[in-house]
Structures are given as structure tokens and as C-alpha cells.
Amino acid sequence: MESNLLSGPITVPSPVALGDTGAEVHPLGLGGSLFGWTLGTEDSERVLDRFVGSGGSLVDTADSYAAGRSESIIGRWMASRHARDRVIITTKVGRGPEHPGLRPDAIVAAVDESLARLRTDRIDLLMLHGEDPATPLEESLGAVGALIEAGKVRALGAADLSPERLIEARVLAANGLPRLQALTTEYSLMRRRGFEGATELVAHAQALAVLPYFALANGFLGGNVRRRSDAPRDARGARMLTHLGRRGHRVLAALDDIAFRRGCEPATVALAWLLARPTVVAPIVGVSRPEQVDAVLAAASILLARSEIVELDRASA
């Protein structure tokens, strides 16, 4: 049954450009890593209904998420809701179980299978999932160039590329190969060092649209895990527990303080901090329940004061 949440026009507040792709998206993206893993098909579809029905548009997945089940769930949802033109789909290739690595043949085969699972004729933003030391970057970019010419891919991005590889990619693009438009990398109040510094400088210089993943530190910044006994007994809960400690409690206290003053959720403030970073276009957030979507999308309406940003910077330093 088609959801009535998707009927009628949708107004997207404050759309942002996704690099030079020509696409504009809501500045909060929905991560599909939980689809087919901790969320079944029906629960995943309810999350997607709430996200798109509330104005969200960027949906992120990968061929490696739940061995392709995440893409299949998104594809089934898009088909049943007739929603393909309402979303911007980004998926990643390079770590899938069937076609690992970034050899040209692996990329082409992985993209074809992703298209089949997603039940679509194009991928809006294809991400190279990490680095493949065994394959020259020039060959990988050339394969994507052919897919762009064929209309199967509209734009190219990368996940977790080093500053050196980003620079190499830009040099190759100057010689006619596809240019990277976006970078997805882990970045949050609890994980700052891996991005801030050289990677951030290169991303800014290349005008890359930065799409941070684990933007809520596996859910820790939602504020529901304050003691070890609060964490769920699964892989995600184990990741949350790595953030417990003096620094984690400082960050949660700062989020609590600002959230109380603003009348919103701590997660909303944590995402608003990311959106205040000059290179960040749209944090990617996974949610477990439809009602959590509201706190995520609300971050686009929060403009933190300079004093609040400094407070969070100090707490997370």
C-alpha cells in the first residue's frame, strides 16, 4: 500500500547544493546502514516514509550494507511509493562481498548489481568505498567515467580517501577524468581528529561536499547511553560504549545544556554543530525508529551561536 505520507507537494527547508552535481538536498541525510541489519523491511520502510514525508531527500547506502539488503529495501520502497524522483540516492562500491576492490570490472559489475537492487536506472552519487592500493586511481576513475557517459551514474564521490589520494584525484580530473564532488568520512563531536586538519583543508580547497557519517557517534550523542548498562547488547551498543568516559560525559553535558536552553534534543544540537562547519553539506544519520527522524531534520533549523559552538568545541577537544 502506498503511504499517504508521500502524497502531495513537499517543501524542503534550506536546500543545499550537493557539490557541483546540480542536485540540491535537505541538509540532513538518512543513512541506510541499519536497513536489513538491525531493522527489517517494514521498519526500514516506516523510517523512509517519515524521512521523505518530512522533507528529507538524501538517502545513503552501500552494496556492502547487510550484503546488499539495504539497497534492496530502499529499491523496494522507492518502487512501492513511486518515490524515485523525490530522493537523491548515494551508494558505495568497493567493499561488497561479490565485487570487492576498485578494479574497473569490479566497479562496473557492482554498479549494475546495485542498480538492480535499487530498481532504478541511475545512481545519483556513486562513492568509491575506501582505497584500493592494488588498482591505480586513474583506472577506477576511468571506469566511473564510462558509467557516467552511459547514464548509469550522475556524479562521483569518495569515502574515506586520504588527503594525498584526494589531491591525486583532482590532478587526474584536470586531465579529463571524472571529478570528485563529495567526500563521506567519519566526523562528529566524538571523532574530530581524523577529519579536522589536512583532510578538511583539502576538502575545502576542492569545494567537496562533505557528508559525515556516524554523525551521532553510533547514537551516543543522542544522550540515552550514560552508563554501560544503558547500551544495547549488540555491535552498535559496543561502539557506543567506546565513547563513555570523561570526555564523553563532558560532551553530553554541553549538549544537554544547549538543548535545554533551545528546547530541542541533544542529537539536534550535535548535528547543528556539524552543520556549522564550513565544509559540511549534509551529515548522514541512521535512525532506529521513525520518531527519531524529527530530531534529525530539526537540526537544519538550528543556528548555533558562536558561544555555543565554542562550548562544544571545548567539551570535545
From TrEMBL:
A single Pfam family, by name? Aldo_ket_red
Lineage top rank: taxon: Bacteria
List, for all copies, the residue spans of the domain called NADP-dependent oxidoreductase: 27-315
GO terms for CC? cytosol
| The protein's name in its UniProt record | Aldo/keto reductase
> Can you name the source organism?
Agromyces intestinalis
